[in-house]
Design a protein that fits this description.
The complex is a heterodimer of chains A (about 110) and B (about 110). Chain A is mainly β. Chain A is built from no helices and eleven strands. In chain A, the strands form two sheets. In chain A, strands 2, 4, 5, 6, 9, 10 and 11 form a seven-stranded mixed β-sheet that branches. Chain A has a four-stranded antiparallel β-sheet with strand order 1-3-8-7, with no helix packed on it. Chain A is globular and about 35 Å long. The chains are: A mainly beta (about 110), B mainly beta (about 110).
């Protein structure tokens, strides 16, 4: 079955540590996105990529980095510069029309 | 990014009734609006897309309207069931530049009671 796989489901980060969230899709979609979801704030766009080897910042890119070396993969790194990383992170892909979302990664700072 | 607003208060209705959720947008009328369902701890699931030139769209028990005069979309679930309980998100295009980048509302939580 086609879809998006995010891993891990839960992730714990220590202060000052960089962590990478994985997002893989087998839908052959060109565009991929990373959103952050906090209670009461809805989804906020972190980064997006319309094509391999190209990506753009969203509203809240500070403290995050991405790469798009393959069409199928769009990993997100949460760096130590992100001061409030605890949130639910969602990856999505699209070709036209609606997004297909992954099941999310819940990141907690310990 | 363009703004989109949903009623943040939860909506509680009785099983069998019609649930109506509201999505309001500001500034220019978007080319389309999308609706998603999200269950706790899960990613949103795409339900419907309605284009600017479409007044109404239906899918099984779901109906979406798009009123460019009121700058509003209504999302209806008829004959609601407890399994319809979830948070429903409205989304619009990020800007006029084309592409498929979306801005999401905060969502409205629906609870269908027996």
């Amino acid at each position: 079955d086609g879809g998006i796989t995010q891993s891990p489901k839960y992730l714990f980060r220590k202060e000052g540590q960089n962590v990478t969230l994985s997002c893989e899709q087998n839908l052959n979609h060109d565009a991929m996105y990373w959103y952050r979801q906090d209670p009461g704030q809805g989804l906020r766009l972190i980064y997006y990529s319309q094509i391999v080897n190209d990506f753009q910042k969203g509203d809240i890119a500070e403290g995050y980095s991405v790469s798009r070396e393959k069409k199928e993969s769009f990993p997100l790194t949460v760096t130590s510069a992100q001061k409030n990383p605890t949130a639910f992170y969602l990856c999505a892909s699209s070709i036209m029309g609606g997004y297909t979302f992954g099941s999310g990664t819940r990141l907690t700072v310990v | 990014s363009q703004k989109i607003e949903q009623n943040s208060e939860a909506l509680n209705i009785q099983e069998g009734k019609t649930a109506t959720l509201t999505c309001n947008y500001t500034n220019y009328s978007p080319a389309y609006l999308q609706w998603y369902r999200q269950d706790p701890g899960r990613g949103p699931v795409f339900l419907l897309l309605i284009r600017e030139n479409e007044k109404e769209k239906r899918k099984e028990r779901l109906k979406v309207t798009f009123d460019t005069t009121l700058k509003q979309s209504l999302f209806h679930i008829t004959a609601s069931q407890p399994a319809d309980s979830a948070t429903y998100l409205c989304a619009r295009p990020w800007d006029t530049g084309g592409g498929n980048k979306l801005t999401f509302g905060t969502g409205t939580q629906l609870k269908v009671e027996l």
